[in-house]
Structures are given as C-alpha cells and as structure tokens.
Amino acid sequence: MIEFNNVSKDFSGKQAVSNLNLSIPNGKIFGFLGPNGAGKSTSIKMLTGILPVDSGSITVNGMDLTTHTLKIKQSMGYVPDRSDIFLRLKGMEYLNFIADMYQVPSEIRQSKIENLTKSFGIYESLNDHIQTYSHGMKQKIVVAGVLLHDPDIWILDEPLTGLDPKSAYKLKEMMREHADKGKIVFFSTHVLEVVEQICDEVAIINRGRLQFHGNMSEMKQKFKENENLEKMFLELTENG
Fold first, then answer.
1. CB neighbourhood size of 106 (10 A)
2. What is the pLDDT of residue 189?
3. Are 65 and 220 in contact (CB under 8 A)?
4. What pLDDT shows up at residue 221?
C-alpha cells in the first residue's frame, strides 16, 4: 500500500501540492487524473524520490520513504512523462544498463529483454541508437526497461502516449495482470476512456488539491448515473 499523508510541495512560494492524503491499495490499477499543472507529475516525483516532500510523509508498505529510500525505490518501476533519455545508447545497451542497475541476473535478463521487446515490436531495433527511434519506440524501450526487474509497484506517468494501438493494448493487458497478482499499478493519464476501461480506483487532483477518490461506480453515484467520465472530470476541475 502507498500512502500520502498530508503531503505538500511548494515551488518559489507557489503550492504545487497541498495537504494531499491518498491511500493506494495493493491489487489495484489506480488512475491519477488532473488537468495540466494540477500537481500530478509533482506528486509522482515525490513518490519516486526525485523531489523531496516539503511537509507530510509518504509511506510504502508501512515504510517511510525518507528513511527507506533505496529499498522502496528497488520495488518500483517508473515511466516518466518524457522518454528522451540516454539517446546516445543503443537499445540493447540501455536495457543492459538498467538490468545492471537493478542486478537482474545475466542468465534471465536476455530472455526478459527478448520477451518484452518482442511484445512491443522493437526487438529488431535493439542494435540501433535510441536517438534514431520514433517517439513511440522511445516510449516502448523505457517501458521495457522499467519492467525488467519485475517491480512490485509500477508508476506510469502518461505511459500510453505515442504507443500504437497494439502496444497500448499489450501494456494495458500487462497492467491488469500485474494488479491481479496483488501488485500496484499507479498511473496518470489524459486518456479518459482508458480510465473507464481498466481502472479499479480513481483520484482526481486539481490545483494541488484532491477533488475525488473512489471507484467508478462511486464517482457516478456522486454525479449522474449516466454521466461519462469526461463530463465528470470537467465538472470536478472546472472551478478547482
């Protein structure tokens, strides 16, 4: 379980996240929604330890992030919202680098790399430099790298951006399988249809404050039963 406990973050006096309280249970696909600038990526970067928490605390399976940073990070796989990293490496060099970082045994890494990259249709491009990849291919190589060490917690910031329909379907299928094993998939997205399709729980944040947390049926009960997610999302975020 992931818990945000009164978490706040300021940038130059402007509050990006304000007293965020959020519980993300095991065995769920958890959708994190909000308009641009709402505080989604800031919250994710605090969860992954990229940004420090100004006040409050984040715990993962009862462990405080500030005191068990390395152990928690080892249990996570993080796909950032930008995939333009390590561009001068070849695809295979990048994946081996990630496997080394997470100490993936050499006897199993090659089969993992082959299975993941074939699933995403980039196996034949592993000897090419990442800077020659299309945006979608860059996204795929990052996702493949994140999944190499079988992390318990997947943290995906706009993971479907740039993916072709087949790869997007495969990733959504993998997300469901991961959650069904009792693990956590925490992802932000602007693709509201995906949230309706696969999310077990949803949280909506706007201007750094939590606007809603619950499952889809609870959200529809709060509004109109036949309302679609897009209309509910706009209503929740219109006035902040």
1. 9
2. 80
3. no
4. 74
User: Can you tell me the distance from the alpha carbon of 127 to that of 124, in angstroms, rounded to the nearest whole number?
Assistant: 8
Reading the block at residue 33, the tokens are: 């929604």
φ/ψ of residue 31, rounded to 5: -90, 130
Please report, for residues 161, 173, 186, the alpha-carbon distance to residue 141 in angstroms, rounded to integers and kept in the order given.
13, 17, 19
185 phi, psi to nearest 5 deg: -120, 110
Instruction: Output the furthest CA–CA distance in the chain (Å, rounded).
Output: 54
Neighbours of 42 (CB within 10 A): 20
- What is the DSSP annotation of 12-63? TTEEEEEEEEEEE-TTEEEEEE--TTSSHHHHHHHHTTSS--SEEEEEETTE
pLDDT at 83 over 80: no
Give the distance from CA 28 to its chain's centroid.
Answer: 13
What is the per-residue DSSP string for 123-151? Answer: GGGTTSBGGGS-HHHHHHHHHHHHHTT--
d(CA 204, CA 200): 14
In the sheet that holds 184-188, the strands lie side by side as 76-79, 153-157, 184-188, 28-33, 201-206, 209-214
- Tens of pLDDT, residue by residue over 143-175, are 999 999 999 999 998 888 778 888 888 899 999
Does the pTM exceed 0.85?
yes
